[in-house]
Design goal:
The protein is 30% helix and 18% strand. With 104 residues, it is α+β, with helices and mostly antiparallel strands.
């Protein structure tokens, strides 16, 4: 068992913490979150850490001015209304990461 939690504002997700009672279980939860976010137009997850696992899913550091500019664009957009996860969302895991702002 494992999972994660965070805060959603508009089309932005801010990851706060991950936990696991089995090896790598939180990594599966993060992969599911990535799929959900890609399917629901959330193009950036603030993960606050630099790890190989996060980098494998497209994570990279952003400069503060670019991050703040992105926030101004997305926090006023509507949040997903239904956070129910469906296994069909796994198809989004192989989709290339997309960032509307381009590289930092």
């Amino acid at each position: 068992m494992g999972g994660l939690y965070g805060v959603n504002i508009g089309r932005m997700f801010f990851g706060e913490s991950m936990f696991s009672h089995r090896s790598d279980a939180s990594k599966i939860a993060l992969a599911a979150l990535v799929c959900f976010c890609r399917a629901n137009g959330i193009t950036l997850i603030d993960c606050q850490q630099e790890t190989a696992h996060l980098a494998s899913m497209g994570a990279r550091p952003w400069r503060r001015p670019q991050f703040e500019a992105h926030l101004k664009q997305v926090v006023t957009q509507p949040s997903p209304s239904d956070w129910t996860y469906d296994e069909s969302l796994w198809r989004h895991l192989s989709a290339p990461p997309h960032s509307p702002d381009g590289p930092p």
